[in-house]
Write a structure and sequence with these properties.
Layout: E1 6-7, E2 9-12, H1 17-23, H2 29-32, H3 36-39, E3 46-51, H4 54-62, H5 66-76, E4 81-86, H6 99-111, E5 116-119, H7 130-138, E6 142-148, H8 157-170, E7 174-178, H9 186-199, E8 204-207, H10 215-224, E9 229-232, H11 246-255, E10 258-259, H12 264-284, H13 298-301, H14 305-317, H15 324-337, H16 347-360, H17 370-376, H18 389-396, H19 414-421, H20 428-436, H21 438-463
Parallel strand pairs: 1-10, 2-3, 2-9, 3-4, 4-5, 5-6, 6-7, 7-8, 8-9
The structure holds cobalt (II) ion (CO).
Length: 464
């Protein structure tokens, strides 16, 4: 028997994934700022606090500078590693950017405080993460290469093991098996972690959601098979489309002889802190109780947390929430037509919106979104499986899909963007915000100027 308990790392997701999956990433910095110092004392392996949809949400809804948010977190969280989620060549947006932008973005993320960058491509087309991985290694970050987990006739364990081998070859420091829809069963997790562990030497991280209720069991089996790190959310922001609860996983692991190393008193403080925030979100309707339940149907529809809350919002806005079931049933059909992309941003949005179009317009592919057209042209990368030939013909005609990376067709973009936005940008970080979300960032910069101008004139009046 081993003398020393085996250490399991727990990463806390309340600031990013739990926030994104339950309340559409609408938690402002001012809500969680007071608890950061305490969170730093919990013993977490890392705080997932940036990237994913946080960047978009800061600029679009919260009137916050996402870079400023990161710097503020870094200033307070001195001991715990800060982790971000990056969509490879998509960065934090919804389209592919040229390589110079990707490199600048990765460099600036690390400069502003990120330690661990989890990098994925929605299609597992690893050509789309090569540049980000390379730059993150150069910048000295811990680079977590990612396998987007999904089930389909073409997503076999061998397929994932091959991808894992490629990630190791690229120089990644760990491998994340990312189950964004919470559909990976305990047995599948066990088998997959075992297979990957046999093939590569890197530590294995498992990420899942409670959507289907499998999450905590999946983590246990993954750990049994040799995974060393799991992602959890503090209890009041856990469950449903969010992660398994930090406290319960810590408790269970301790009992069966693992050392998750978390301080239970500190965890309680953190949970007590977030509970009123969660309750307020329930009251205002920002948090829909539907996403907090268990939905085994996702085992069929594979709809990830963020996507389900988006779909509900989208249908609600069109007064068609009663058609959710039909849209959920259409989702796997659209996915099959597209060669079984894993459902994760941006493919989840693409498939979801198209499925909604197909249902609401009363005819499949009557309205085809421009994202789906771009996908069929190969602008997001190589589809994992065969595309529906009829659909391809309908959209592309005689045009041939791309063979190379879409980014290979793009001109460098940083200097051009810098000129375009001019004095409104005060830093290279601002330029990158502008590149990621041009109109929204520009609006944000203008409002910032106005705010400051008002403050200045107010101060002058006061002096007068
Ligand atoms: Co997730």
């Amino acid at each position: 028997m081993e003398e020393k308990q085996m250490k399991i790392n727990i990463t806390e997701t309340v600031l990013r994934d739990a926030n994104q999956s339950l309340i559409a990433t609408r938690m402002p910095m001012s809500d969680f700022e007071p608890i950061l110092e305490t969170m730093d004392k919990a013993g977490y392996y890392a705080l997932e606090c940036w990237g994913g949809a946080t960047f978009d949400s800061c600029l679009r809804y919260l009137h916050e500078d996402p870079w400023e948010r990161l710097r503020k977190i870094r200033k307070v969280v001195k001991n715990t590693k800060l982790q971000m989620l990056l969509r490879g060549q998509n960065l934090l947006g919804y389209k592919h950017y040229p390589d110079d932008i990707v490199r600048a973005f990765v460099r600036k993320s690390v400069e502003n405080g990120i330690d661990i960058i989890r990098i994925f491509d929605a299609l597992n087309d690893l050509r789309n993460i090569e540049v980000a991985v390379d730059e993150a290694i150069k910048a000295g970050a811990h680079v977590q290469g990612t396998l987007c987990y999904t089930t389909s006739p073409i997503h076999t364990p061998e397929n994932f093991v091959n991808l894992a081998r490629q990630l190791e070859k690229m120089g990644c420091h760990s491998i994340c098996i990312k189950d964004m829809a919470g559909i990976m069963s305990p047995k599948e997790a066990y088998d997959l972690v075992k297979a990957v562990k046999e093939a590569v030497k890197l530590p294995i991280v498992v990420h899942t959601h409670c959507t289907t209720g499998l999450g905590p069991m999946t983590y246990l089996k993954a750990i049994e098979a040799g995974a060393t790190t799991i992602d959890c959310a503090i209890a009041c922001m856990s469950g449903g489309t969010s992660q398994p609860p930090t406290e319960s996983m810590n408790y269970t692991l301790k009992q069966i002889g693992y050392d998750a190393g978390l301080n239970e008193d500190v965890l309680k403080e953190i949970n007590d802190f977030f509970r009123p925030i969660r309750n307020k979100a329930l009251e205002t309707g920002l948090l829909n109780p539907v996403v907090m339940g268990t939905d085994p149907d996702s085992l069929t529809y594979q709809v990830p947390g963020g996507m389900l809350s988006n779909l509900i919002a989208q249908l609600k806005a069109q007064n068609a929430l009663d058609r959710l079931q039909e849209v959920l049933e259409e989702t796997p059909r659209v996915r099959a037509d597209l060669g079984y992309p894993p459902l994760v941003t941006p493919s989840s949005q693409m498939v979801g919106v198209q499925a909604a179009n197909n249902v609401l317009s009363g005819q499949r592919y009557k309205n085809i979104t421009k994202e789906i057209k771009a996908y069929l042209r190969g602008e997001y990368g190589r589809a994992p499986g065969e595309l529906n030939a009829e659909l391809v013909k309908k959209v592309l005609g005689d045009e041939k899909p791309l063979e190379c990376r879409f980014a290979d067709t793009l001109e460098p973009g940083f200097e051009k963007a810098k000129k375009e936005i001019g004095d409104l940008a005060r830093s290279d970080e601002d330029v990158l915000s502008y590149v990621a979300f041009p109109q929204i960032a520009e609006k944000f910069f203008k409002e910032r100027e106005e705010r400051e101008h008002n403050t200045v004139s107010y101060q002058i009046r006061k002096v007068d």
